[in-house]
Amino acid sequence: MASSSHSASPFLYSCIAFHSTILTEHSSSPSSGASSLASLILPRIDHSAPQKLTYTHNQNYIHYISDAPSDHPSFPSAGGLTYLVIADSSLGRRIPFGYLFEIKKRFLAQYPPSSTEYSELPNYGAAAFNSILKGEMIRMGEEEGGREDALGNVRGEIENVRGIMTENIERVLERGERIDVLVDKTDRLGLGARDFRVRSRGLRRQMWWKNTKLMVLLVVVVLFLAYIFVGFGCGLPGWSKCIG
Q1: pLDDT digit string (tens) for 38-96?
Q2: What is the distance in angstroms between the CA of the first residue and the CA of the last residue of the chain?
Q3: Under a CB-based contact definition with an 8 Å cutoff, are residues 141 and 9 in contact?
Q4: For the chain, what is the total number of helices (H) and then of strands (E)?
């Protein structure tokens, strides 16, 4: 069950989930409905490859880090974990991702992959971590020192948060499409573009042959007309008056 407070923290909601199963969460503003956004996003996250992604939703940003089995080759169930936070857009992206790096580090220390089968944990199976989420949301969202720590985490993990993909959540939710469907569409567009290039090359070759045949035909017609024109003066068919 979610812990909550009535703090004015720019961090509205945070959770850690295994696929769509929320293991621990905290909401600083239960009335904002931020937790419902998380329930919409979690099933759409693809864990086949690691992701760091930001969604925009009105004045809020939804940031998450999702692990993949390749991140934890010896403990593949840890590859299904997602670390998510919803924050006011005024906070930018560096501090929220710094927060996510911190809670990821602390969660894996408290629930080590070597001794935790995350797929077997029930809903809120790591609720003991709720208080840590709350504490870090307050510390990194409201305290200057905490924000400096968050920025330090980002500098230590990724050089440029601007490289993190950003997507408007309404564009996904209004269409009711899964992210993996969107990726599949992108792949199909790439294949379509390659097919288009192949067809274009084939069409260019066909047009070249067509133009070549027309040129040959034109030359034959010109030579024939020249033959007829000269033949009127020299005699047909052998131009006997001119040659004989």
Answers
A1: 888 899 898 998 888 888 888 888 899 999 999 899 998 999 999 999 998 888 888 88
A2: 114
A3: yes
A4: 7, 7
